[in-house]
Write a structure and sequence with these properties.
With 324 residues, this protein is mainly alpha-helical. The chain folds into 2 domains: 100 residues; 179 residues, Intergrase catalytic core (hpI Integrase, Chain A), CATH 1.10.443.10. It is 47% helix and 5% strand. It contains 13 helices and 3 strands, in the order ααααααααβββααααα. A 3-stranded antiparallel beta sheet has the order 1-2-3.
Length: 324
């Protein structure tokens, strides 16, 4: 191994900015998604910062034992991290430990036998009923906002395709194409997979209205450009050919939900949950919906199916021996 990349187990504990060391390039670059890399770096850095701040008896990786991993898990719980988040952070650190074993810096993975918390969602994503979605669309139709064409396109794409916020942000004009009588969008989704989704004709027409409006403003969108771009940039007026800020999408959705009288906590993920819930409630096959939204397992898709979890949907109503 190159001497410049040689690292001791003591260095990892003592070096605050150790994640920027080229020694770890191999580990992080194994992930395709920039968001995944960012998440892993944040999670792993948090664990070692915790060690430096609270574990005064630890001077090198070889001093770390399973009890330190358990103490970290307890600290995360006491600081009210959601079970799903705790599992992700422990999993990130565990994967990193596997890499350290491979590089002969540690002998075993201290996270391997630590029991993970049950993944109970603390603040479940609120979805919208079909009637609520229609009311949001109606507010978009009568909007007088200067950016109404952008707003309408963003909201329609979120609700009628079920794609994630990050997927919408990265969508480029070249990703949209016509095939076998349908308009489709090609996406690189979570896990580095590629997915092709049908665009409803109504949504395609709204995107067309938006791109035509952009052209009328002297801002024609080219195939390599992001479809959804900011309409203004107070800090740098000349820098507008860039993807929307994630906070802008949050604002757009909340703006029209509140205008429609929907006051519950709504996020772009609510649109994804609504897409899945509406499709299932109206008879779509669970397996097909799961594939359509890019889930690894139908169990994940089932978690979004809140609409069927109603008293009126109880199996008791289908018991043959209770029917008159």
């Amino acid at each position: 191994m190159d001497s410049k990349l040689t690292l001791s187990s003591r260095d990892i504990i003592q070096e605050i900015d150790f994640l920027n060391n080229p020694f770890f390039f191999e580990f992080f670059e194994n992930f395709e998604s920039k968001n995944t890399i960012r998440s892993y770096k944040s999670d792993i850095n948090q664990f070692f910062n915790y060690v430096r701040e609270y574990m005064f008896d630890v001077n090198s990786l070889k001093d770390l034992k399973r009890l330190h991993g358990i103490a970290y898990k307890k600290w995360l719980t006491e600081n009210e991290y959601a079970p799903k988040t705790i599992n992700r952070k422990l999993s990130s650190s565990s994967s990193f430990y596997d890499y350290l074993i491979e590089k002969s810096l540690v002998e075993y993975n201290i996270f391997d036998s630590i029991k993970r918390p049950k993944q109970v969602v603390k603040t479940p994503t609120n979805d919208l009923s079909d009637e609520e979605i229609i009311s949001v669309f109606q507010k978009l139709d009568v909007s007088k906002s200067k950016s109404r064409f952008l707003h309408k396109a963003v909201v329609y794409v979120l609700f009628t395709t079920g794609i994630r916020k990050s997927e919408l942000i990265n969508l480029k004009l070249k990703d949209m194409h016509f095939e076998k009588g349908y308009w489709l969008i090609n996406l690189k989704v979570k896990g580095g997979k590629f997915l092709s989704k049908v665009l409803p004709m109504k949504t395609y027409e709204i995107i067309q209205e938006y791109t035509e409006w952009m052209a009328s403003q002297g801002r024609e969108i080219h195939p390599e450009d992001w479809i959804f771009q900011p309409t203004k940039n107070p800090i740098d007026q000349g820098n507008l050919i860039k993807p929307l800020n994630p906070k802008t999408i949050d604002y757009i959705l909340k703006k029209y939900c509140q205008s429609a009288g929907i006051l519950k906590r709504i996020s772009p993920h609510s649109a994804r949950a609504s897409y899945i819930g509406s499709a299932l409630e109206n008879g779509a096959d669970l397996y097909k919906v799961s594939k359509d939204v890019g889930h690894e397992s139908v169990k994940t898709t089932e978690e979004y199916d809140k609409r069927r979890k109603k008293i009126s949907d109880s199996p008791i109503h289908n018991l043959g021996f209770l029917k008159d």
